[in-house]
C-alpha cells in the first residue's frame, strides 16, 4: 500500500550508531510513533521495519537535542501534541529568517510587535514562506485566510494524527473562447486525490512544518542549560 | 453536603457515586459508579469502580475490578485486580493476580504473582519472579526475570535483559502455591517470539529470534536464530539453531 522506502531496525541501529536500549527507551517516551513500527516476516525471521527517511531524520533530531533537554520534554517538542498556548516570541522567529516583510503583511503580523505569536500565526508564516515561490500573492492571501479561519485547536491536533497537508490547487476552466483560472486551497490528508484537470501547484506537510517550528524554536531556547542528561548509557540504577 | 473533599468507607454492600475523595475504602462488596478520583483507594473486599480511576495510592488485597483506565502513583495488588482499560502507574507491585486488558506503562513493575496483559508493558525497570502473559511488547531499560512460573511475551526489548532459573526468589510458600495455581503446571520457562537488547542473558527460554550486542544463551534454552554484534556464548545445555554475527 505504502510505497515509502523501509529500513530494518538493525540497519537503523548500525547506521545511526545507537543501541537497542536507546531505541526502546525513545519508543517508550513517545519519541518514535507507534505507527512507524511495522513487523514483517523475512527469511531470517520476524523483523521490525520503519519508514526510512522519517526514522533516520527523527533519530538525528533526538541525537542532536537530547544533550540539552530531558527526554520527556523532548517528547513534547517532537511529537504530536500541540500545545495550543505555545507562543512564539517574535524576535525568535526573526532569528530563523523564514520570512520577508511581504509575508508578514499577508499574515497581518505587525513588524515591530512585542506580543508573542500564537502557534497558528507561526504556522501561517511558515507555510506562506514555503509557498512564496510557487504561489501568487492572491493565493498566499487565500492560504492565510484558510489557516486563520480553519486552524482552530481541533485541527491543530489532527494535523499530525491524520498527516494533514495543505494543497494549493489551480484549475483552468474554458469555454466559449474564454478561459479562466481558479485557485483553491485544501487541507486534506496526505495523498489526497484530485480530479485530473486540477493542477497541484504545491503541497505542504503541515505536521512536518509544526515539528520544524517546535524543534527550531526549542533549539533557540536552549541557551546551554544542560539539564541532567537522563538518557543514554547512564544505566537507570533501579535497585529497589 | 459541603464542597470539601470527602472520604468514604463502604463496609457492607454499598454503592458510592464517583467524584473527588480523599480516602476511599471498600471492605464489603462495594461499587463506585462513575469516575473516581481519590488520594488513596483501598479495596479489601470485593470492590468495583465502574469508570476511570485516578489515585495517588491504590491497594487491592481483596478483589478489585476497574472498568476504565487506572492512573496512579503507586498500585499494590496482593489480591486479584482486573483493569478493563490501560494502567498508567508509576510503581506497580503485584504479588497476587493482575489482569490488564490494554497496556501498562510504569516506571517500576515488580511481579511476584501473576500478570496478564492484553497489550504492551512499558517500564524503566521490570522485575518478575512470578508468571506473566503479555500479548504485546515488554520493554524496559532493565528486564529481570527470575523464572517462577510460565512467562510469555510476544516481544521483549530493552537495554539489559536478564532471565534466570528461579532466580529472584523473594516470595514465601503461600505465594508459591498461588503462583502455581494460577499459572498451571509448575513449568517455569519463558517463551517469546523476539528478544532484543544490548546485554542479554537467557536461561530456560524458548524464542524464535534473539538479537543483541552481547548475548549469553544459558542452560535450557531453545533459540531459533541468534543475531549478535559483539559476543555470543552458548551453554552446552542450550540449543541454538542458527547464529549470525553482524
Describe the structure.
The complex is a heterodimer of chains A (240) and B (246). Chain A is an alpha+beta fold. Chain A folds into 2 domains: 6-69, Multidrug-efflux Transporter Regulator, Chain: A, Domain 2, CATH 1.10.1660; 87-221, no CATH class. Helix content of chain A is 43%, strand content 21%. Chain A is built from 10 helices and 8 strands. Chain A has a 3-stranded antiparallel sheet. A 3-stranded antiparallel sheet of chain A has the order 7-6-8. Chain A has a two-stranded antiparallel ribbon with strand order 4-5. In chain A, a hairpin with a 2-residue loop joins strand 6 and strand 7 (178-189). In chain A, helix 7 (119-131) runs antiparallel to helix 8 (137-150) and helix 7 (119-131) crosses helix 10 (206-221). The model of chain A is unreliable at 80-85 and 221-240 (pLDDT under 50). Chain B has a domain at 123-246. Chain B has a 20-stranded parallel sheet that branches. In chain B, 4% of the residues lie in helices and 70% in strands. Chain B is mainly β and 246 residues long. Chain B has 1 helix and 20 strands. Mean pLDDT of chain B is 88; it is low at 167-171. In chain B, strand 16 (150-165), helix 1 and strand 17 form a beta-alpha-beta unit. The interface between A and B is medium-sized, with 19 and 28 residues.
Write the layout of secondary structure elements.
The complex is a heterodimer of chains A (240) and B (246).
Chain A: E1 6-8, H1 9-16, H2 20-28, E2 38-42, E3 45-51, H3 52-65, H4 71-78, E4 87-88, H5 90-96, H6 101-106, E5 117-118, H7 119-131, H8 137-150, H9 153-161, E6 164-175, E7 178-189, E8 198-205, H10 206-221
Antiparallel strand pairs in A: 1-3, 2-3, 4-5, 6-7, 6-8
Helix pairs in contact in A: 7-8, 7-10
Chain B: E1 6-10, E2 13-26, E3 29-43, E4 46-49, E5 53-60, E6 63-66, E7 70-77, E8 80-83, E9 87-94, E10 97-100, E11 104-105, E12 108-111, E13 114-117, E14 121-128, E15 131-147, E16 150-165, H1 173-183, E17 189-202, E18 205-217, E19 222-234, E20 239-245
Parallel strand pairs in B: 1-2, 2-3, 3-4, 3-5, 4-6, 5-7, 6-8, 7-9, 8-10, 9-11, 9-12, 10-13, 11-14, 12-14, 13-15, 14-15, 15-16, 16-17, 17-18, 18-19, 19-20
Amino acid at each position: 500500500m505504502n510505497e515509502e522506502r523501509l529500513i530494518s531496525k538493525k540497519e537503523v541501529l548500525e547506521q545511526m550508531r545507537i543501541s537497542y536500549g536507546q531505541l526502546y527507551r525513545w519508543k517508550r517516551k513517545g519519541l518514535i510513533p507507534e505507527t512507524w513500527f511495522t513487523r514483517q516476516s523475512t527469511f531470517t525471521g520476524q523483523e521490525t521495519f520503519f519508514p526510512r527517511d522519517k526514522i533516520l531524520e527523527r533519530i538525528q533530531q533526538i541525537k542532536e537535542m537530547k544533550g540539552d533537554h530531558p527526554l520527556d520534554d523532548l517528547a513534547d517538542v517532537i511529537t504530536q501534541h500541540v500545545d495550543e498556548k505555545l507562543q512564539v516570541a517574535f524576535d525568535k522567529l526573526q532569528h530563523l529568517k523564514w520570512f520577508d516583510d511581504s509575508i508578514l503583511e499577508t499574515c497581518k503580523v505587525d513588524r515591530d510587535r512585542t506580543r508573542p505569536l500564537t502557534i497558528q500565526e507561526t504556522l501561517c508564516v511558515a507555510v506562506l514562506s514555503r509557498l512564496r515561490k510557487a504561489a501568487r500573492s492572491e493565493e498566499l492571501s487565500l492560504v492565510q485566510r484558510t489557516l486563520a479561519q480553519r486552524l482552530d485547536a481541533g485541527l491543530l491536533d489532527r494535523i499530525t494524527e491524520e498527516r494533514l497537508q495543505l494543497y494549493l490547487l489551480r484549475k483552468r476552466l474554458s469555454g466559449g473562447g474564454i478561459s479562466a483560472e481558479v485557485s483553491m486551497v485544501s487541507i486534506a490528508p496526505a495523498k489526497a486525490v484530485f480530479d485530473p484537470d486540477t493542477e497541484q501547484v504545491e503541497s505542504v506537510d503541515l505536521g512536518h512544518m509544526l515539528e520544524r517550528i517546535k524543534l527550531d524554536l526549542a533549539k533557540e531556547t536552549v541557551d546551554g542549560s544542560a539539564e541532567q542528561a537522563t538518557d543514554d548509557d547512564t544505566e537507570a540504577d533501579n535497585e529497589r | 453536603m459541603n464542597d470539601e473533599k470527602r472520604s468514604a468507607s463502604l463496609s457492607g454492600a454499598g454503592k458510592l457515586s464517583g467524584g473527588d475523595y480523599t480516602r476511599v475504602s471498600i471492605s464489603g462488596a462495594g461499587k463506585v459508579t462513575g469516575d473516581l478520583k481519590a488520594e488513596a483507594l483501598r479495596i479489601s473486599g470485593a470492590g468495583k469502580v465502574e469508570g476511570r480511576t485516578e489515585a495517588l495510592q491504590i491497594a487491592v488485597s481483596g478483589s478489585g475490578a476497574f472498568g476504565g483506565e487506572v492512573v496512579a502513583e503507586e498500585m499494590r495488588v496482593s489480591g486479584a485486580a482486573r483493569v478493563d482499560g490501560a494502567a498508567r502507574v508509576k510503581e506497580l507491585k503485584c504479588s497476587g493476580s493482575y489482569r490488564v486488558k490494554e497496556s501498562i506503562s510504569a516506571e517500576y513493575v515488580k511481579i511476584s504473582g501473576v500478570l496478564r496483559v492484553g497489550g504492551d508493558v512499558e517500564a524503566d525497570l521490570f522485575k518478575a519472579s512470578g508468571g506473566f502473559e503479555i500479548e504485546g511488547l515488554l520493554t524496559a531499560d532493565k528486564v529481570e526475570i527470575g523464572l517462577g512460573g510460565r512467562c510469555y511475551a510476544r516481544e521483549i526489548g530493552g537495554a539489559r535483559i536478564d532471565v534466570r532459573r528461579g532466580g529472584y526468589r523473594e516470595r514465601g510458600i503461600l505465594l508459591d502455591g498461588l503462583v502455581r495455581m494460577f499459572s498451571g503446571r509448575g513449568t517455569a520457562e519463558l517463551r517469546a517470539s523476539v528478544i532484543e537488547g544490548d546485554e542479554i542473558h537467557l536461561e530456560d527460554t524458548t524464542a524464535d529470534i534473539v538479537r543483541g550486542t552481547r548475548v549469553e544463551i544459558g542452560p535450557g534454552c531453545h533459540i531459533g536464530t541468534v543475531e549478535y554484534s559483539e559476543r555470543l556464548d552458548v551453554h552446552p545445555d542450550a540449543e541454538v539453531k542458527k547464529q549470525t554475527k553482524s
